[in-house]
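Quick illustration, no need to memorize.
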Amino acid sequence: MMEHDPDRRFTLVEVSATDWTIHDLQYPENDHRRVVCTIFEDAPTEVEVLWRRDLPLALRYSSAADVLEAVRRFQDSSRATRPIPIPHLPPARGPRGLRG
């Protein structure tokens, strides 16, 4: 079973009743970079994640869906750019000779 949203880059793939992988759809099926992580169920309320990429994310989550959401949030935040600096200019001076 595969959960797939065409507007999303990452998808959760069920491997077995207790194991999943997250795929990065920007890479082709036979590219090793496609697999972001493998998820193993430790208990009905906890999963462990084996990251295949160097991501600063947790190793344990409540569910496979929570892992997918964390990957999506991380990707969305990493695409954000820094603010573009705007040069600050001194205020324009009025005509010479005028004093307030």
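Residues 47 and 66 are 9 Å apart (CA to CA).
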